[in-house]
């Protein structure tokens, strides 16, 4: 029956490994970093193709790739060594990140990149590649869902207060429409709709041809700007 290791034994073993150096070869390091780079580039491609904001920031995409690579490097250094692990926790505890994350989905991508870095750092290739491909497919599928499509504000000025025919026309060109505001003045009206999943060119063309519509404004908006 094997003897269980005490905390003292683990600590002494970690000190011995610390003094003797790591047993990683250049091939191990290269394989781990290359695997992380491949996964990180997939994450970056997914982020670009599912981005919902107004202005894409190239720096954030670079950050995702570098965060994954740095995490892999750190995990390879502290893997299996309690002393280095505790030291790393102490060092990171004094770090304060001040950058504001505007979109909650950005947090998901950050954790995704870090988790890939951790998995490849301990040579869990199956976990990193399988989770990367699966999450990429899920994100692309959710991108096509109406709930994640870019919302627009459609502002219309009408000659009459009757907007029923206009609303029917809008419904033919969008997946989802919701009345946000309606203002009546001297027999005319200004109506604001939130529309999702629009056929932009056809919608604007049909509204422009409608006899009651005098002015059309279409504004993209969201929580990312």
Describe this entry's structure for a reader.
The protein has 8 helices and 4 strands, in the order H-H-H-H-H-H-E-H-E-E-H-E. It has helices spanning 7-20, 26-50, 58-78, 82-92, 104-121, 125-144, 164-171, 200-209; strands at 151-158, 176-185, 188-196, 213-220. The model has no long low-confidence stretch (mean pLDDT 77).
Oligomer: single chain
Q: Can you count the helices?
A: 8
Strand arrangement, largest sheet?
A: 2-3-1-4
Shape: rod-shaped
Report the order of strands and helices. Answer: HHHHHHEHEEHE
Helix percentage: 55-70%
> How many strand elements?
4
Rounded mean pLDDT score: 77
Main beta-sheet annotation: 4 strands, antiparallel
Poorly predicted segments:
none
**Distance separating the two termini:** 62 Å
Question: What's a concise summary of this model?
Answer:
With 225 residues, this protein is α+β, with helices and mostly antiparallel strands. The protein contains 8 helices and 4 strands.
Features:
alpha+beta, 16% strand
Map the helices and strands.
Layout: H1 7-20, H2 26-50, H3 58-78, H4 82-92, H5 104-121, H6 125-144, E1 151-158, H7 164-171, E2 176-185, E3 188-196, H8 200-209, E4 213-220
Antiparallel strand pairs: 1-3, 1-4, 2-3
